[in-house]
Amino acid sequence: MTQRIVEVHPDPAALAEAVAVRLLARLRDVQAERGHAGAVLTGGRVAGAVYRAVVADPARDAVDWSRVDLWWGDERFLPAGDPDRNETQAREALLDALPLDPARVHPMPPSDGPDGPDPELAAARYTAELTRAAGAPGLPPFDVLLLGVGEDGHVASVFPEHPVAAESRPVSAVRNSPKPPPVRTTLTLPAINTASQVWLIAAGPDKAGPVAAALAGASGLPAAMVHGTAQTVWLLDAAAAAQVPEHARTAG
Ligand SMILES: O=C1O[C@H](COP(=O)(O)O)[C@@H](O)[C@H](O)[C@H]1O
């Protein structure tokens, strides 16, 4: 049974700093236990702020970045280096500042990658990379998996009432995404739910409705359908938490 934590911070800056502190601690703890750690990155506005807060935190030096595997939860299927790719955003805000092992950085393929503009082939390639890293059928350890929450309750590129929400393969192409760009690749709900800790991060008043609905277990809402095997952590600013009842928040 997953433990649910709902943490509310006063504003987006405080939220980003708190997520950065928590992320650095999680990576340190996993490395102390197992030597290497696996994290899954997300895209979106709040993620950018978190990445910049990680780089600004002196505790980043306590993580051995050469033993961190970085994966992506979803990607906008665009050419390499496109500013709208989640990879580009993460590289600029986070990766470029860290002494990572390039072999442990696993972006989802771009639309001008080895398989060309075919998102199904890109999804299959990413599945193969995950399997290779796992060393056996299945997925490598996702010690922490970060997710934004869309205004419609989507997570990664799993959108409500879209066939991708029922996909059972670990990685899927997404066509006709309701949010641009229309073609994407994503980890699916079953893959996300293998992570030991899933963190849903949301800031701003536009997220208040979907956050409250997901916490209440609204059916068909991807944000309500994800959980860590050990912990599901909601990290919110006050605006995103505005409709979350007091009893649903974690004290402290
Ligand atoms: O398109 C996407 O949007 C979501 C949410 O982004 P936000 O800017 O509203 O926080 C993000 O989680 C996802 O990775 C991204 O591809």
Automatic annotation (TrEMBL):
Quickly give the catalysed reaction.
Answer: 6-phospho-D-glucono-1,5-lactone + H2O = 6-phospho-D-gluconate + H(+)
Listed GO biological process terms = carbohydrate metabolic process; pentose-phosphate shunt
Keyword Hydrolase listed? yes
**All residue ranges annotated as the Glucosamine/galactosamine-6-phosphate isomerase domain in the record:** 10-234
Q: Which Pfam families match?
A: Glucosamine_iso
One function term, GO molecular function aspect: 6-phosphogluconolactonase activity
NCBIfam families associated with the record: pgl
Q: What is its biological role?
A: Hydrolysis of 6-phosphogluconolactone to 6-phosphogluconate.
**Record pathway:** Carbohydrate degradation; pentose phosphate pathway; D-ribulose 5-phosphate from D-glucose 6-phosphate (oxidative stage): step 2/3
Q: What class of enzyme is it?
A: hydrolase
Q: Which species is this UniProt entry from?
A: Catellatospora methionotrophica
Do the record's keywords include Hydrolase? yes
Q: Under what name is this protein listed?
A: 6-phosphogluconolactonase
Keywords, A to Z, come to: Hydrolase
> What's the family?
Belongs to the glucosamine/galactosamine-6-phosphate isomerase family. 6-phosphogluconolactonase subfamily.
Species lineage, top-down? Bacteria, Bacillati, Actinomycetota, Actinomycetes, Micromonosporales
Give the enzyme's EC designation: 3.1.1.31
